Amino acid sequence: MLGYKFRIYPSKTVQATLQEHLELCRWLYNRLLFELNKAKEEGRKLKQTDTQALIVKLKQENLELRKVYSKVLQMVNYQLWSNIKALAKLKKNGKKVGKLRYKGKGWFKTLNFNQSGFNIDFENNKLILSKIGSIPIKLHRPINGEIKGVIVKKERSGKWYAIVQAEDEPKPLPPTGKVVGIDVGIRHFLTDSDGRQIENPEFYKRTLSKIKKLQKDLSRKQKDSKNREKARIKLAKAYEKLVNQRNDFLHKLSRFYVDNYDAVVVEDLQIGNMVKNHNLAQKILDASWGKFIQMLSYKAERAGRRVVKVNPRGTSEGLRMDDPLRDYISAFRIKNKAGLGRPSEPVERRPLLRITSHEVVTGQVFSRKQEAPCVSEG
Fold first, then answer.
1. Model's pTM, two decimal places?
2. Radius of gyration over alpha carbons of the chain, in Å?
3. Which of 40, 50, 274, 372 is the Cys-Cys partner for 194 at CB 3.0 to 4.6 Å?
4. How many CA atoms lie within 13 A of 58 on its CB side?
């Protein structure tokens, strides 16, 4: 199942309807959670089918619920139980978890039209939703496969999006006969065994001063005032732009490696443990190594490629921190650890091919070529 995210532009009237439906879904979520907690206190155990059946009775109690498409209400129940299962899994893994919280006003952000209640008019670029109406949609890319659902989401910035879920068969890419090792880092986002070194874009660091200023402006505004809401939206838009820039960079870079290599070898990093180092936590989170590897993995799976994770132990052993080719040698060792083909070693020094984040985003990383640097480890 693939998700395609498109911007939608509801009119003020439709926005009011969407907001009303979100609040009704929030009310339903909280009421179902209340019934679960009440049953637990009374020694009763409710199942997902029990709360599903309860929706019919609640529609008689609260007639406003009938304004919302029935499948959307059912998916509220599904979301509640998904959250319950996620907490149970964390608890099973030894994590300390609390109880599910009731959702406050404005915290319910999605309407899930699963299987039915939606239609996309591709000719006129319209998204048609049951009990809501027609909404202009910017279809900036084709949708492959059979459309199974649409999730309407309101971002904290006030923008509205439609996430179109489509079921599509994987399309394996032709083999390239190439394997690459990747060493991620803080000084450079990554260095690969073919001699490319991608700069760390540091998106958060670059926008930190702006975000701090907007946070300061927000803190000075009177609570519940219109000016505070305007300041909140400005801050939300800054964070949204930051996330979009980072995701664009990660998508394009992961696509490059999946398109050009049969196998990509990476270190099996325990990022959750690494961020416990408070001196490096922000830099590690800003780099988003985990998200990059996640993108590599699902794209590789669909393309018939492989992402191989190896133990990071020893990949930097004996290398000086000031050696400009340290990360490149580590990438070579990472590649060799996978045991894919005959081990190889660099033999002489040449400069790395340094690539900026701008070149990644604009696609220039695809056209720049250079022989891989070779170094002697002796």
1. 0.80
2. 25
3. 372
4. 23
